[in-house]
Amino acid sequence: MPKVAKKKLAARTFVDRARKYTLQEACELVKKAAPAKFDETVDLAVRLGVNPRHADQMVRGAVVLPHGTGQSLRVLVFAKGEKAKEAEAAGADFVGEADLVNKVQEGFMDFDRVIATPDMMGLVGKLGRILGPRGLMPNPKVGTVTFDVKTAVSEAKAGKVEYRVEKAGIVHARIGKVSFAENALHGNADALIQALVRAKPATAKGVYLRSITMSSTMGPGVRIDPVHFSGKAEEA
């Protein structure tokens, strides 16, 4: 049996698949059960009681994780004039207008987040087929279409993550790295879950937080008991 397979098998012994853990226990287990030598990414998967095929049950938004994601994001901003200068001052990696739109159309994709001022969306709309499938198209619902480029760039650099429910009703999001302290993973996971609770559609019926699972890139999934958060979800 290959070494990687052995490590994965050994990692599974840490987790009882039939049990639902507290968030704190999950953070401890994910760190302990991570089998890889590299600093694995930690993700959270939350299954929601919504039907994304109905527009009024689409759950989408963004949240700034208090401890960042452990990833250095490359931010591209479509802006001009003073707003372009603001973006550069805030730390944007690439700033431009028509010239930058053309560059992306020609194949340039060396960036992780796209922000645009509203007056640039006429041009940026041409990139829908390129940016859309990659989840990079600017959208006012997640704060990436705004004249406040300074805040948008700063938040992206600080660890703002976007979330969107998939067809199966699941939201996947990065919440950090295995090297993070347990309290940092706990704080990030809690921030994301609370954001999802606040985003609960008024038309969603029944149990909203169906299941929550935390895992590292190569490690086993650790099921988290959603009961602790369910009361707040029903109140939302």
Précis, in short:
The protein is α/β, with parallel strands linked by helices and 236 residues long. 35% of the residues lie in helices and 20% in strands. The termini are far apart.
Helices and strands in order, then pairings?
Layout: H1 3-12, H2 23-33, E1 41-48, E2 60-64, E3 75-78, H3 81-90, E4 94-96, H4 98-105, E5 113-116, H5 121-124, H6 128-131, H7 149-158, E6 160-164, E7 170-177, H8 182-198, E8 209-216, E9 222-224, H9 227-235
Parallel strand pairs: 3-4, 3-5
Antiparallel strand pairs: 1-7, 1-8, 2-6, 8-9
Helix pairs in contact: 2-8, 3-7, 8-9
Structural class determined from secondary elements:
alpha/beta
Radius of gyration: 19 Å
Which percent bin holds the helix content?
25-40%
Strand percent estimate: 15-25%
Distance between the termini: 49 Å
| Arrangement of strands in the largest sheet | 7-1-8-9
Mean pLDDT: 90
Shape: globular
